[in-house]
Write a structure and sequence with these properties.
- The complex is a heterodimer of chains A (951) and B (62).
- Chain A is of the alpha/beta class and 951 residues long.
- Chain A is built from 26 helices and 32 strands.
- In chain A, helix 1 packs across helix 9, helix 18 crosses helix 19 and helix 19 packs parallel to helix 21.
- With 62 residues, chain B is mainly α.
- Chain B has 2 helices and 1 strand, in the order ααβ.
- The chains are: A alpha/beta (951), B mainly alpha (62).
- At the A-B interface, helix 18, strand 32 and helix 26 of A face helix 1, helix 2 and strand 1 of B.
């Protein structure tokens, strides 16, 4: 681990390095990249002058000092077409990218994204005279935005319900909304439709297609030598336009590079990659599809109301959504797990594989990424240890440029009869480890060893053993550039070739087979972190098991691809029990009448500083907690918006917390922002743990320097589909790379005494109806995909805290789900710190009593009218006071182990203080009162005088 | 010369100051309800630290 001093210059360089190591080169025909020194190029598309640096909302970044792509290329000695640049800049008001307002949180916001690219005819007529001089390359920057509170439109003709006049008028007739003269009324709105092209924001708009066709014509007539496309987005654009056989048009694109959202100085890294100063070594962390609708998760991505919900008077929008749901019908087959597994089944001739063509489905697989040089991997070996495997491979640079190489290790677990009988699903490959070489000069070699814990091979059996198991059978390990090469290697080891329908020969020399003789249902049935027994916790979130019986769902299964592939939304129905479970407060005080009242305001003289370094179970905590007053507990717990309150009784100072995933982004609340790094997917795509720990260290240092003790991040939700508005805040579609990178970043951040809040635990994977959406899934999917990142970040990274999701698990809000907050996060993962809610100021469903019982500790709310008032009413309720005391224990334990204790000794005390703004109000009251009295006196006196004169 | 009574002026001022005073009292009530948020935004606090030791650092900035 490097430990150089941190300066703004160091951080700007680090961000550029992250970008340079994370960007993935997808296509590079005829070595079109890197550009030759001194090249003269033209930059096309709105994105060229308006890069995506990050998304909108709480994680928005400060771009005031961010270099442009022009700055970056100029720095590399590449000359850009200034006239074209000026034209795009001057037309930005007319042709600017459209993005919903920050945290719009309205369903209709999903329709408000727009590419709004300038028509090619205008671009060409205004600038064609400049093209030839800057014809070494046409560089096209295709950008797509994302933001908190608004998912991207997918163009699907799906219907949801929008019930406000404002929403209907915003969408308009052309989107299917019916205008009504009868005032607010439910209307059908096709909110999946966008404002561009065919309504799918992630396909090219007609203007973009026209631009590419125009550039191809100019390339054909010799004006441009090459066409380079940069994908500037965290939301996977459909890449049909890169393949003439898929889209039917040859756009003549020579090179394509995914660069994600670049953060404050990532553009510098892009410039280095284009010029060849840096060599690409990033690997895609999402599957790029030709048509995103082939992704089995998309059909259920947007929310819908329960059938028959109308008669229950439940909300479908606003701050307390009750009757909208989403089913994770795709199960574990998220991202690459679907196409790779179905591909293997097609090749092997497995029954019910159905009609599936990998090569017309996936444009670029997970893990893909080219280099300007070539590498050879050899000497693949796997050594079995007691609890792990050491996978070793030799990497040799066989090309002519220096560069780094990522080694990705995948495994395949057997899909057994036991699995089929017990409803267990298995992907054909899963990433289980990665490593990266140093920069290898041409001809140089390096041996990379990747340690794979055996626990990575476990699978969750929710129906048979009801715990983690290790199946009997053959397990395969391979090292490959991406998930597809991994499957082909394993298929080759099984004896399959292109004659069996494989699209390329695999390399069986890169495969190791390990056999587990017998089904093991005990080794992984206990938590590695705490020793707790592991068993089903989330049956109530499984629609097929829930006592609330919303309906039956067929989850996608490789036992019958054709018959289980979701083609329409899973249908769930409202009923009395479900409606009752969706009410805001479930707590019944009479069920806890025998609880003794804890001691309050004991008047002891302990201070929090005495507990620095003390164990969580140290008995002195009880004496300290006895000193707290009820009002201190209520204030600290219910008014936790970006802070923890001061508690005079134990001399705890107030602390400050802040957003967000790309760095310290205080801009949302008007504070100063620090360095902001790339979007999280670019971080993950580096597959460089050392680099990411350094990023974390720098973010932590920024927090420490600016007086923050907690950070609302990293973001750990999954890229369930490319259409999530907040994908830029989350790492990947793959939980392993997300968990590993998050753990490294977390270690770095917390090394500065800054407690992270992993957000948002869990299933907060979309923005539509987010404040209360009901999410339904099975337990294997929950554990192996959606909880895995938090699992790794807490167990491997030591993450202190979490932020719960807005969503419900089934019908129960994440923050009040005891099995999630307490049994899983604390019981299985060993979380030590506090659990904060997401913004809860106006949401009644994030109930303080239910939340405290479930395991939430602090409410992200600045508003006292709901939670503070409700909590204040529990002063005589011993059970609730006990819950508050436990929450305070978690809060104080977190704070006492943070940088908030810098400067504190045994003698340090908190004393009352009246802040200047309150003194100002008091002064104002006093002055106006005196003036009122004075003028009243004068009024009285003048009236008297008037009477005397009149007399 | 006798002073001319200014009843109208003082009536207006009395009402104005009374309204301002009442507004301040009401504002103070709401400000106290949102005191935590105001403190975060303004960097202020209802408490202050005595005996703070700048040399005691459990986590160092570099």
């Amino acid at each position: 681990m490097r430990t150089p001093s941190i300066s703004r210059a160091y951080e700007r360089e680090l961000c550029a390095q992250v970008e340079a190591e994370g960007a993935a080169l997808l296509k590079n025909d005829n070595q079109a990249l890197p550009l030759a020194g001194g090249s003269k190029v033209s930059l096309f598309a709105r994105g060229s002058v308006e890069l995506m640096y990050g998304g909108t909302g709480s994680g928005s970044v400060d771009t005031s000092q961010a270099p442009s792509l022009k700055d970056a290329l100029t720095q590399e000695g590449i000359e850009i077409n200034q006239g074209l640049w000026d034209w795009y800049t001057s037309t930005s008001e007319k042709y600017g990218r459209k993005t919903p307002a920050s945290i719009s949180d309205a369903l209709v916001a999903n329709t408000q994204y727009g590419v709004n690219e300038a028509p090619w005819a205008e671009v060409e007529s205004a600038n064609s005279s400049t093209f030839a001089e800057y014809g070494d390359a046409a560089i096209v920057v295709l950008s797509r935005s994302g933001g908190e509170g608004a998912d991207l439109p997918d163009g699907d003709d799906s219907v949801s319900l929008v019930t406000t006049t404002e929403a209907k008028s915003a969408v308009g007739d052309n989107k299917g909304g019916e205008q009504s003269s009868e005032g607010p009324k439910t209307a059908d709105v096709h909110y999946g439709m966008g404002t561009e092209g065919d309504g799918d924001y992630l396909s090219l708009s007609q203007e973009e297609k026209d631009m590419l066709a125009g550039l191809k014509a100019l390339k054909d007539n010799g004006t441009f030598k090459k066409i380079v496309v940069l994908l500037n987005t965290s939301n996977a654009i459909e890449l049909d336009f890169l393949n003439p056989e898929i889209c039917g048009v040859d756009y003549g694109i020579d090179s394509c590079m995914w660069i994600g959202d670049v953060g404050q100085t990532g553009a510098i890294g892009v410039g280095r990659l284009l010029s060849g100063t840096a060599n690409p070594s990033g690997s895609l962390v999402d599957t790029y599809w030709y048509d995103n609708m082939k992704n089995p998760a998309v059909v259920n991505f947007y929310t819908v109301p329960y059938a028959g919900y109308e008669s229950y008077g439940l909300n479908t929008e606003g701050a307390d959504v009750q009757a909208m749901y989403s089913v994770y019908q795709e199960g574990i087959y998220l991202g690459y797990r679907y196409p790779e597994t179905r591909y293997e089944d097609v090749v092997m001739g497995t029954a019910n594989a159905g009609d599936f063509n990998y090569n017309t489905t996936v444009a670029y697989p997970f893990g893909y990424g080219l280099s300007y040089t070539t590498f050879e991997m050899s000497g693949f070996q796997v050594k079995e240890n007691a609890d792990s495997f050491d996978v070793t491979v030799n990497v040799t640079n066989t090309g002519s440029a220096a560069g780094k190489k990522t080694v990705q290790v995948y495994f395949q677990s057997p899909y057994t009869d036991y699995d089929k009988q017990n409803g267990i699903e298995k992907a054909s490959v899963e990433l289980c480890g990665f490593g990266k070489t140093k920069i290898l000069e041409p001809g140089a070699s390096e041996t990379v060893t990747v340690n794979v814990p055996k626990r990575e091979l476990r699978t969750y059996d929710a129906n048979g053993a009801k715990t983690y198991i290790l199946d009997a059978g053959d397990y395969y390990f391979t090292a490959a550039m991406g998930s597809h090469e991994a499957v082909n290697n394993i298929l080759a080891a099984k004896g399959f070739t292109t004659e069996n329908g494989m699209d390329a020969e695999g390399n069986q020399a890169m495969v190791y087979k390990w056999t587990n003789a017998a089904l093991d249902t005990t080794t992984y049935a206990k938590s590695e972190a705490t020793g707790a027994e592991i068993t089903n916790l989330f049956d109530e979130s499984d629609p097929n098991k829930s006592s609330l019986t919303p309906g039956n769902v067929t989850f996608l299964s490789r036992s019958d691809w054709e018959g289980t592939f979701p083609t329409q939304r899973a249908q769930l129905t409202m009923n009395d029990a479900l409606a009752a479970a969706l009410q805001f407060t479930q707590y019944k005080a009479e069920e806890h009448a025998d609880t003794p009242m804890p001691t309050l305001a004991s008047g002891g003289n302990m201070t929090i500083s005495e507990m620095i370094g003390a164990d969580y179970n140290d008995e002195r905590w009880e004496s300290l907690l006895d000193q707290l007053t009820f009002q201190e507990m209520v204030t600290t717990i219910t008014l936790g918006f970006h802070n923890t309150a001061a508690c005079e009784s134990v001399s705890k100072a107030a602390t400050k917390d802040e957003n967000g995933p790309q760095g310290l982004t205080a801009s949302l609340v008007g504070g100063k922002s620090a360095m902001c790094y790339t979007s999280e997917d670019v971080m993950a795509a580096t597959m460089n743990l050392e680099l990411m720990e350094d990023v974390g260290r720098c973010i932590g240092n920024d927090c420490l320097d600016m007086g923050y003790s907690g950070l609302y991040g990293p973001g750990i939700n999954m890229h369930r589909t490319p259409y999530s508005g907040r994908n830029f805040e989350y790492y990947s579609e793959d939980p392993f790379v997300a968990g590993a990178i998050c753990a490294a970043e977390t270690k770095g951040i917390q090394s500065k005494g800054v407690y992270v809040y992993l957000k948002h635990v869990a299933l907060n994977d979309s923005e539509t109806s987010r404040r209360g959406v009901n999410t339904w899934l099975n337990e294997q999917t929950a554990r192996e995909i959606y909880l895995e990142v938090a699992d790794r970040a807490i167990i491997d990274g030591g993450a202190w805290c979490v932020m719960s999701g807005f969503n419900r698990w089934g019908a129960q809000w994440s923050g009040e789900n005891y099995n999630l907050q307490t049994a899983y996060l604390r019981g299985e993962c060993g979380m030590r710190g506090m659990s904060i809610t997401d913004f809860s100021g106006l949401s009644q469903y994030m109930d303080v009593a239910d939340g405290l019982i479930g395991g939430s500790d602090i409410w992200d709310s600045p508003m006292p009218m709901i939670h503070t008032n409700i909590a204040g009413g529990y002063a005589a309720d011993p059970y609730m006071v006990t819950q508050m005391r436990e929450a305070m224990h978690n809060i104080l334990y977190t704070v006492v182990n943070s940088n908030a204790m810098n400067g504190w000794t045994a003698e340090t005390r908190i004393v009352p203080n009246t802040p200047w703004w309150q003194l100002a109000i008091y002064a104002l009251i006093a002055v106006t009162a005196l003036l009122t009295i004075g003028s009243g006196y004068m009024l009285f006196k003048n009236k008297k005088l008037a009477k005397e004169l009149n007399a | 010369m006798n002073k001319k009574p200014r009843v109208g002026l003082w009536r207006v001022l009395t009402i104005l100051f009374a309204v301002l005073c009442i507004g301040s009292i009401v504002g103070n009530h709401f400000a106290n309800q949102y005191a935590t948020t105001i403190n975060v935004a303004l960097g202020t606090s209802f408490s202050k630290i005595q005996g703070f030791d700048e040399n005691t650092k459990y986590f160092e900035s570099v």
